[in-house]
User: What shape does this take?
Amino acid sequence: MRNLVFFLVSIISLCACASEIVEKREISYLENPDSDYAKEQCKLDIFYPKGMDNFATIVWFHGGGLHMGKRQWGELVAARFVPEGIAVVTVSYRFSPQVKNPVYIEDAAAAIAWTFKNVAKYGGDPDKIFLSGHSAGGYLTLITGMDGRYLDKHGISNMRIAGLIPISGQTITHSTIRKERGIPEGTQIVDEFAPLFYANRIGPPCLCICGSDDLPLRSAENIYFVEVQEAAGNKKISFLEVEGRDHDTIFENINNPSDEVATAMLRFMNEILNEKNK
Assistant: This one.
């Protein structure tokens, strides 16, 4: 990851749109954090459009292999989508090896639940919440969106999610989870921690996005996930492979007004929102 470039570009972009964006930062989303690490790490920032009501929201999870990363990378997403009238919630979560699976998944679910329970205070519509993220964030998007047990603990059905938009996310059991178990690198498994494990039951509407030059097999596993969901009866699921993009550039260009990823995300969200407004 080009962390410094991400951060500097995001700050410049947000400043350019400052008159349109309201920011609330360093919000704790755990009700009862059980450690200093949880208190420090389990926070989110919300960026939302000034003077608007009933807006849609993207809950954004950063990448980093479940062992590193910054929610501030998601400010690129906020700079692109808030001017479109869509709020963005950027989420930090705990990392391996400081914690083990499924703590980071539970953190993601807690942040989603916080958004459902609190976004109306900022003017958002809790029936218009989308999940998205890049790489490990794409995995967290899919596993919390497909395995309803995590949100059930917060009294929320995963089918309330307006849509899932994983970008270069693993649909098999995540490589970090396999590493925690001592499974040899390159050994692929699909168990209860794989979004694919739940693909034979209809999930929320979903747009899976990968680059043509993404990580090995990343497009293939996303295509398979989409095909299994389609066979299960999900009529609002699709796959987009963006030509010439690798695992980093599939996200790095999202703030560009003509970016194919951002454009596809907006099109997908608008289709869902238009149906809700009928």
